[in-house]
Amino acid sequence: MNDFALEAGNYVRDYWGEGRAATYADFPLLGRGPFGEAIRIRQETDATFRPFLFVPRARLHDSPIDLKGPGQSVTVVVWAIRESGNHALAGIWHEGTDLQQKETASIRKVERGQRQYALFAGLNKAGAACGHVSENGASSFLNRYALHKSNSADVAPAVPADTPAAVLDAAWQCFAMTYDHASRELTGWLNGVAGDRWLENPKTDNLIKSAYQAWLQGRLHREPGLQPGEDHAFPPDQFYNPPEDLPLAVKILRASADERVELREFRYTRVEVTLRRGADGGFTETSRDLVSLRLNPWWFPHDRLYTPANDGTGGPFTIGRVIHSSRGVGFTGWIGGVAVFNRALRAEELAKLAALRALPAGR
Fold first, then answer.
1. 94 forms bridges with which residues in the sheet?
2. Most buried pick, 65, 146, 260, 342, via CB within 10 A?
3. Do 54 and 173 fall within a single domain?
4. SS3 helix, strand, coil % of the chain, rounded to 5?
5. Half-sphere exposure in the Cβ direction for 202 (13 Å, CA)
6. What are the beta bridge partners of residue 31?
7. CA–centroid distance for 162 within its chain
8. Low-confidence winner among 280-284, 293-297, 351-355 (lowest mean pLDDT)
9. What is the mean pLDDT of residues 163-183?
10. Same domain for 243 and 108
11. What's the domain count of the chain?
């Protein structure tokens, strides 16, 4: 970020017309950090004041951090101490202010989502390193939210603001996300470790049930004719069907002379398959259902990151918060460094970056 001058802003003032302007003085300095100085994102109590640091779109459009389009990979790394919250750390992730909900009833500046890529402090898994990417800047699977995200297996602890200095200095975490366009894998990394994370029974999850429906509609669409439960109006570009060619493992759950139920594990999904014996003695698949979905790494079905035109449909690069329809506080804690790479870093590279979180003695 050394080539881009950061500004201080208050997104409530920008979009609701309320509150005072933010200045650099609104970000207390720690006096030390992995790279010499860290800033604090505080739990502001004034609902009209939600400060963040940002690079305006006009200055970053088509620059090295404006990572977008086909064939583009990205890595975001943030060295931070998490005090509370699970929301944005850094990235180009304007969530939009056009949601029809009570939080936006008085909003003055209504804009569509302008999401490209970003790193969060967990979202649905508080404290995890959560990567987010978008192909359209807007929502996924007919949900109001963007849902292509990954969560590291490990989570960062919540460290109270009044923690003694020696303990605070040992609490630095290295959050990272990678998106590899070649494999279409989005991965969250905490301190250089990704780990596996699965979500069981995704059809009942508050948000991921939308991904389950996208998987189901894509499967039904491939069958000839209109199938029971198929929504012919579901947009094909929002189907979610990770590769399910050869299973990595097969477990027989139930079996009788005429029926067998198998659990087939693939790279990104676990599918329960029912087979019935036919007149020829062979088994034929009669149904299948998604019973588990992999959250880390997450498979991204699109070949590009959102590509905004230079017409106001692109978002700024923000640190500490993103622009969205809520006035929630979001992440609080210390941020000691932010880095963006135009490729997916390897595990050994992320491990080296994670090692930088340890402060030298006396620093």
1. 114
2. 146
3. yes
4. 15, 35, 50
5. 27
6. none
7. 29
8. 280-284
9. 96
10. no
11. 2
